[in-house]
Design a protein that fits this description.
405 residues, single chain, alpha/beta, Rossmann fold, seven-stranded parallel β-sheet, 15 strands, 2 domains, six-stranded parallel β-sheet, 16% strand
């Protein structure tokens, strides 16, 4: 546990000479704060609590402020970006277009890690991966623990959803078809660099098994349930809510179609490459808020009647945040939603990705707002994540002797 609850004895004994273990961290990129970065923030805090931080390896770093611990690691010079970070707009508009170069970037980081290790040895590498960084090769004898948000969705499972509308979407889809097979082969081969996979959901664990042929334990991502909580003085209002990046695979278009068909008021919080197209597609009952601060987001969770969750997600931190505020979910019956939404208790699941099915789910879910949603969300608290990941880290730092298995 963080904040004084962790004792260092077991971790100290895991490193030679009784010293605190040095642990390196890796993440695909530092280009905005979303669910993956929330995980990295908690992992960095755990590393500081259990041992000594080595470095944080990333393919891209846009330099923007993210979170207290990540920013502190930057200030200490611990962040190691790859050569791709030097490409103009590489950490911005061009990042997704540079997929063919990800393996080369990860290989260069592997060489950097090996050189850093030769100067200051590390005891463990932890990667947080949804794209390519799980392919980072640890130095000989150093175990690699990968917290996997998903095998790269745009080549393995949701390639068609990453196309999107317009010329840009068609070009993106063409590029994925042309290079996807080669990336898959590299991604599968480099799974052997990982000693242990931890998945963010049961769905992701099944994807890891299917894509890489290995088993993974499940530790749900950390959700700020102490911040996102109900307020009995705030009444529910008659509007639907979407909180999402405005990207093709998020299926915000389906939420818009459902709201238009039902004549329902829909508030959309979030931004992304598809915003202009979605705004042209929306009707008068649909409001785009863009990116909003946490206080405004929490207020929307507290006032909305239902959160629409039309996409297939690996987990879905937004859905867990909404539940923590007592807000029920109308969710697609696929992916990580099965770990979050209990049909008829904390929301409603729908199978067919049609406006009619989503509208029906929204109407079934809305009356379920309240305490059962909040209670269900406590399973995903930051403290629950810390406890589970601490066990995973201690176990790989100090493996069980063969004679005791």
């Amino acid at each position: 546990m963080i904040e004084g609850a962790t004792t260092h004895d077991a971790a100290d004994r895991a490193a030679p000479g009784g010293r605190r273990p040095r642990i390196a961290l890796a993440h695909d990129w530092l280009c905005g704060y979303r669910g993956g970065e929330a995980v990295v923030e908690r992992l960095a805090l755990l590393i500081e609590s259990m041992g000594n931080p080595a470095w944080l390896y990333v393919m891209f770093d846009d330099g923007g402020r993210l979170s207290p611990t990540i920013d502190r690691w930057r200030e200490r010079g611990l962040v190691r970006p790859s050569w791709l970070d030097l490409v103009p707009l590489g950490s911005g508009a061009l990042r997704r277009w540079l997929l063919p170069f990800y393996p080369s970037a990860v290989e260069s980081l592997s060489r950097r890690l090996l050189a850093d290790h030769a100067k200051e040895p590390i005891d463990l590498l932890i990667s947080s991966s949804s794209a390519a960084i799980k392919g980072l090769r640890p130095p000989p004898g150093v175990p690699h623990l990968c917290y996997c948000h998903s095998p790269a969705r745009y080549v393995w499972s949701r390639r068609d959803d990453y196309g999107g509308r317009g010329l840009t979407g068609r070009l993106r889809a063409l590029g994925l078809r042309a290079y996807g097979g080669r990336f898959k082969r590299w991604d599968r081969d480099t799974a052997s660099t990982v000693n242990r996979f931890v998945a963010n959901s049961s769905h992701t664990a099944s994807q890891i098994r299917e894509c890489f042929g290995v088993e993974a334990s499940v530790v749900h991502p950390p959700v700020r349930t102490a911040y996102f909580k109900p307020d009995s003085s705030v009444p529910r209002e008659d509007f639907w809510l979407v909180v999402s990046a405005l990207e093709p695979y998020k299926r915000v278009d389906l939420a818009i179609d459902a709201a238009r068909a039902a004549g329902a008021r829909l508030v959309i919080a979030g931004d992304g490459s598809q915003r202009a197209i979605l705004e042209r597609h929306a009707g008068p009952t649909i409001e785009f808020r863009g990116r909003i601060p946490d206080a405004e987001l929490r207020d929307l969770y507290r006032r909305a009647s239902v959160l629409l969750f039309p996409q297939v997600e690996d987990f879905g931190i937004v859905a867990a945040e909404a539940l923590a505020c007592g807000l029920p979910i109308a969710a697609r019956a696929q992916g990580g939603a099965f770990d979050i939404v209990q049909d008829g208790i904390t929301g409603a699941l729908f199978t067919d990705p049609t406006p009619t099915a989503l509208t029906d789910a929204a109407r079934r879910a809305a009356p379920l707002a309240g305490d059962p949603c909040r209670t269900a969300a406590t399973r995903f608290s930051e403290s629950a994540f810390d406890e589970s990941m601490e066990r995973e880290i201690r176990s790989i730092l100090r493996p069980t002797p063969a004679s005791a298995r």
